[in-house]
Amino acid sequence: MSNINLLPWRELRRQQRKQQFLVALGVTVLGGALSIFSWDLAVNYLIDRQQDRNHYLREHIALLDEEVSAIRELQQRRNQLVERMQVIQALQGNRPIVVRLLDQLVRTLPDGVFYTALNTKDNVVALQGVAESNNHVSSLMRRLDASQWLDDPKLDAVQSAPEYGDQAATFKLSVTLVQGNDIEGASL
Fold it and tell me: How far apart are CA 36 and CA 53, in angstroms?
């Protein structure tokens, strides 16, 4: 017998294709939704992980900032201590110079002259005093100039001082303290 199909096969075929299309569409939509959902989970996981890393880095940066500030404070304290040590060394280095200066001022002081004030700035010594006469001031300046520790005496002012005597005079002069290498080894 022959196989003749009298059923509406085209419509059945159309419905099968439509059903296959709808199934394929559903599977595609479901696959797309699953893909989007899994992509969203993956992105959210990566975002959370990066936020955790950022938080970890912020915490450690804060700790390092504290350590850096502590190091800076220690460096400042070290610099202050070094500066203090330099000042102390300079003072101790200048101690013999001060003694030498005072000794030279006493050795060069002629009779009839006395000092009333002494000021130093760097290597310049400013002296004020009273002398019995102008000749005594001249003698003082010659003695200061002859000293190996003092140099370049300059007379700033001389005024008569009747309160000290008839020929008495007050004076102001400046002298430079010699601090050369050849002087360091010399003895007084």
Answer: 25
Residue pair 109/115 in contact (Cβ under 8 Å)? The answer is: yes
Instruction: Tell me the whole-structure pTM to 2 decimals.
Output: 0.49
Q: Which helix (H) or strand (E) holds 163?
A: none
Per-residue pLDDT tens over the stretch 53-106: 999 999 999 999 999 999 999 999 999 999 999 988 877 776 777 788 888 888
Helix (H, G, I), strand (E, B) or coil at 22: helix
Q: Name the residue among 165, 105, 107, 108 with its Cα closest to residue 134.
A: 165
All domains of the chain in start order, with CATH: 109-184 (3.30.70.2830)
Task: Rounding to the nearest 10 degrees, give the CA dihedral for residues 138, 107, 169, 174.
Answer: 70
